[in-house]
């Protein structure tokens, strides 16, 4: 498996199949980025997380997550991306969106992972609700 120009196209298709709205670009030969609003970044984090990681992320890492929705979503996305390579990252933009960066090879692996998950409105919404409700219940004032 290798990345390349097709990796961004496959990543866009995989995101669209799950109704994730965002922008994916290849910047040079070594960097692919996706930019998402907080809800879509959280959706991708949920889709990429291993089933037993969801609870771990919501509880064990919440102290490291930001107080704003975009910061929290970027932290969750960054956590989910770690298995795709050391070059992956996620952070918050001044615009209030989350962005993730990765190698074309990582983008290809992420696209394959997303494509393997069955898209469906019920599954996506149920997964998000579970994560967001857990975060709201433990969030401090703010």
Can you walk me through this structure?
By secondary structure, the protein is of the alpha+beta class. It is built from six helices and four strands. The protein has helices at residues 5-17, 38-48, 53-60, 69-81, 104-116, 121-138; strands at 22-27, 31-36, 89-92, 98-102. The protein has a four-stranded antiparallel β-sheet. β3 (89-92) and β4 (98-102) form a beta hairpin. It is globular, with a radius of gyration of 14 Å. The N and C termini lie far apart (45 Å).
Low-confidence stretches: 121-142
Question: In DSSP terms, counting alpha (H) and pi (I) runs of 4 or more, how many helices?
Answer: 6
Structural class: alpha+beta
Give the mean pLDDT.
77
> Main beta sheet: strand number and arrangement?
4 strands, antiparallel
> What is the number of E strands?
4
Give a brief description:
The chain is an alpha+beta fold and 142 residues long. It is built from 6 helices and 4 strands. Residues 121-142 have low confidence and may be disordered.
Keywords:
four-stranded antiparallel β-sheet; single chain; 6 helices; 142 residues; 15% strand; disordered C terminus; 4 strands; alpha+beta
Task: List the topology elements.
Blueprint lengths: L4 H13 L4 E6 L3 E6 L1 H11 L4 H8 L8 H13 L7 E4 L5 E5 L1 H13 L4 H18 L4
Antiparallel strand pairs: 1-2, 2-4, 3-4
Helix pairs in contact: 1-5, 2-4, 2-6, 3-6
């Amino acid at each position: 498996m290798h990345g390349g120009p097709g990796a961004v196209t496959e990543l866009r298709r995989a995101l669209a199949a799950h109704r994730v709205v965002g922008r994916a670009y290849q910047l040079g030969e070594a960097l692919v980025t996706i930019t998402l609003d907080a809800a879509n970044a959280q959706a991708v984090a949920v889709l990429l997380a291993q089933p037993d990681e969801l609870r771990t992320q919501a509880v064990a890492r919440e102290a490291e997550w930001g107080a704003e929705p975009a910061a929290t979503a970027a932290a969750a996305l960054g956590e989910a991306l770690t298995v795709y390579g050391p070059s992956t990252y996620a952070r918050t933009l001044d615009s209030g969106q989350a962005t993730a960066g990765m190698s074309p090879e990582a983008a290809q692996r992420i696209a394959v992972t997303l494509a393997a998950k069955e898209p469906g409105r019920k599954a996506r919404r149920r997964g998000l609700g579970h994560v967001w409700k857990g975060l709201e219940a433990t969030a401090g004032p703010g």
